Amino acid sequence: MTLEQEQRDAVLAEAATWIGTKHHNGARIKGVGVDCGQFPIAVYTACGLMADPKPERYPHDFHLHRDREWYKELADAAGKRIDGNPKPGDFALYKIGRIYSHGAIVVKWPQIIHAYIGVGVIYDLGNQGHLTDRDVIFYTLWG
To answer: pTM of the entire structure?
Structure first.
């Protein structure tokens, strides 16, 4: 097994330990509360794949009234954008509202793990339900 495959497996294993954590805006405490921005950061930092960026505080509805693409800026700095065909452990960033504002970790596309408001951290399909027809861009931390 390659180092990359071991790291991708570690990301999925760590992400799975967050399943059931409640959604709480701006929080990052496994088993207590996390949002869709903090969740991927927590997973990738726990696996040693990125430095902890400590994003600025943000309101739960920032995507409705802000123009700054801070989440996309963070993704651009941490990873490399890829065209479609994401692999397990890659990052999906969705445009919701005015900006790219919802993040998820790819399990095996279209399956994702993400923190969803009112639900918490769950396995989901990244191309159905509330994510149907959303603009999505993918990033990888490898290669």
So the answer is: 0.94
